[in-house]
Write a structure and sequence with these properties.
The structure holds two protein chains of two kinds.
Chain A lengths: L4 H5 L31 E3 L2 H6 L10 E2 L2 E2 L2 E13 L3 E7 L4 E7 L2 H6 L3 H9 L7 E11 L2 E11 L3 H20 L11 H9 L3 H4 L9 H12 L7 E2 H7 L4 H14 L2 E3 L5 E4 L3
Chain B lengths: L27 E12 L2 E5 L5 E5 L11 E11 L2 E13 L6 H13 L1 H4 L5
Classes of the chains: A alpha+beta, B mainly beta.
InterPro entries (chain B): NA-bd_OB-fold, Rfa2
Main location (chain B): nucleus
GO biological process, one term (chain B): DNA replication
Chain lengths: 276, 122
């Protein structure tokens, strides 16, 4: 029961790891991916969908400080209402309730008339109070949040539901605490806050890193492992080595600077690890 | 305010029991278990190796012996401890198709990372 890689290494969050959650570092310029470039599919709970923040209008929604493209969730269908252009479902997954709109594709609607399609549709029917898995995108209409979906299909095996829940937690932890096994990934939840204040020598032991975003962790790891002069590495070089866009690296740098684990050397864009 | 129904095991029922001393918000929970006894308006479900829970049924809850059911209900006092007044139930079919260990992990994760699943008091 207790051997979650995360649970044990993070000390169950006692004292709540100070430092930075990825979310705090997002300046408006950071979330500028509303152009549909974000093609990720993130498993979430409905509560996360309802709690998702919008950094500014027209932006992508953010959950745990990470922009979300498409989402998927599993829940019970509480209501189905079929209109001429769309089917609206109310889905409840035990963490909240949300409306899901699935637009009716006129092409598929027509082919429903054939017997084959009918048989297939009958098998694939989502029923009231049954479980369903929904794939779609978070949308807002007026003040109401809903999911614009392209696929709603029934779930018949309970293990799929449970798998989804665990995946949700795994992804949540990825975004809040970084990848499994990353350097310094064992930053004790309790150690983080104190270390930022005065326990600098903890860093050289590489165990007191505060919570940071995955990008920041990658930048930190590169600075730690890459051969360099005492001037450290320039942000552009880091961006090239990690094949990351410059703004992301700049943001990660800010995060690390604020956390006091790196310092700028010859200019503001050149950083070295702070350790003795 | 949307209805939140955290998934629990029998051992967690006390934490979701509304008493003056414990005014927890969600008192409605979800339980998963196999129906092992039916007695008219009450029933018993067995939650893997985690013990039994007494259910107070609704007239229209149709539980079947030996089936795996997911129950949404309110935690209430029953003689001999805590039980659940059923609000809704869902039949998941044969218990053989469910790995109950995974459910235990789900419940564990739910409460360890509450923020993802329900609004916790304080």
């Amino acid at each position: 029961m207790d051997n979650y890689g995360y649970g044990s290494s993070y000390g169950g969050g006692g004292g709540g790891g100070g430092g930075f959650m990825a979310g705090e570092t997002n300046s408006p310029a950071g979330g500028k991916s509303a152009d549909g470039n974000n093609t990720t599919l993130r498993p979430i709970t409905i509560k996360q969908a309802l709690d998702a923040t919008l950094p500014y209008p027209e932006a992508d929604y953010q959950i745990d400080g990470a922009g979300v493209g498409s989402i998927c969730f599993v829940g019970q269908v509480r209501n189905v209402s079929t209109q001429s252009t769309n089917i609206t479902y109310r889905i409840d997954d035990g963490t909240g309730e949300i409306e899901v709109k699935q637009w009716v594709d006129s092409a598929t609607a027509d082919s429903m008339d054939t017997d084959d399609a009918k048989a297939a549709a009958g098998k694939n029917q989502v029923v009231n109070n049954g479980y369903a898995k929904v794939f779609g995108k978070l949308k807002t209409f007026g003040n109401k949040r809903f999911v614009g979906s392209h696929c709603v299909r029934p779930v018949t095996n309970i293990n799929e539901l449970h798998y989804h829940m665990l995946e949700v937690v795994a992804v949540h932890l990825f975004f809040t605490r970084g990848p499994v096994g990353g350097t310094g990934g064992t930053a004790g939840g309790a150690g983080g806050a104190d270390a930022t204040m005065g326990g600098v020598d903890d860093y050289s032991a590489s165990k007191g890193l505060p919570a940071m975003s995955p990008v920041a962790r990658r930048v930190y790891n590169l600075l730690k492992t890459e051969p360099q002069s005492n001037e450290g590495l320039h942000a552009q070089l880091i961006a090239a080595k990690l094949s990351l866009p410059m703004p992301d690296v700049a943001r990660a740098g800010d995060e690390l600077l604020t956390a006091g684990v790196i310092f700028s050397t010859v200019d503001e864009q050149t950083w070295a690890i702070l350790e003795y | 305010m949307s209805l939140q129904t955290p998934r629990v095991l029998p051992a967690h029922l006390h934490a979701f029991h509304a008493t003056p001393a414990n005014p927890h918000t969600p008192t409605t929970v979800r339980l998963l278990g196999t129906v092992t006894a039916l007695r008219g308006d009450t029933a018993t479900i067995t939650c893997g190796t985690n013990g039994d829970v007494t259910l107070l049924l609704k007239p229209d809850s149709h539980l079947q012996m030996g089936r795996l059911v997911e129950v949404v209900g309110k935690v209430v006092d029953v003689e001999g401890g805590l039980g659940v007044r059923v609000l809704a139930s869902f039949d998941w079919g044969s218990p053989a198709d469910c790995d109950y260990k995974i459910y235990e992990h789900v419940v564990n994760a739910t409460h360890r990372f509450k923020g993802v699943f329900y609004e916790a008091v304080e």
